[in-house]
Write a structure and sequence with these properties.
single chain; mainly alpha; two-stranded antiparallel ribbon; 3 helices; about 80% helix
Amino acid sequence: MLTLFTISGLVILLFAILRYVEIQMARRTFVSKLTSSTDSFFKFVVFRVQQTAHKTYVSILHMFSHHVPAHSEKVWDSVRRFAQAKQMRARDVLRGRKVINKENGSVSFFLKNISEARRREGSGGSIVG
């Protein structure tokens, strides 16, 4: 631990001396140019990471604000339609309504019985007697 501390202190001291020499010479040294170029490289990397993070954030925000509600609404509608159909079938069974199929459509038993009664009478008059 002491070695690491000593090395770090020497590096900081070396940078301070190089900076002093640079100011005295009035021109940039190799180390200064190297640190400057690495600074620009890391600024570019940080900028790209921030840009990618922002695009990801915006796309996730768009997904949760537009796509998820639309999908859940479609799912809810299909569940509602399914439940409504089940409810209608259960209500029809409870009321005793059954639907028969004929070549020209579907008719309830009540209407079928009325039409048969009228056919039996022949005149199409009243079926109540």
